[in-house]
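User: Okay, second chain of the day. Same drill as before: sequence in, structure tokens out.
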Amino acid sequence: MTVIKINAITVPENSGDELATRFAARAGAVDDQEGFEGFELLRPTDDRNVWLVVTRWRDEEAFQAWVSSQAFSQGHRGANAPAGHGGPVSVSSELWSYEPTVRSAGKPA
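Assistant: Same drill. Structure tokens below.
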């Protein structure tokens, strides 16, 4: 069964664009990972400062295999460096885990 992992990332004011730039630079880096089904970076459209990284995985095992992979390590290197030197632009993050319960595909355009 598909699992959805949401990384809720809190960023300081005016740091969201840098977060988006970094994710755009790595777009597609996880696409070939076994069990990966999709990715979205969601920008808040209100006064929140929490961005959501939403990934879909075939199952928990596929997600855990990616977290344990060299690709994950490479994508998150520099996490302990200052933001101006490739370190995080976030002040905190929280990982949420969900599974779909009810779905609707909507009407084709």
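The helical segments are 16-25, 60-67, 70-75.

User: Thanks, on to the next one.
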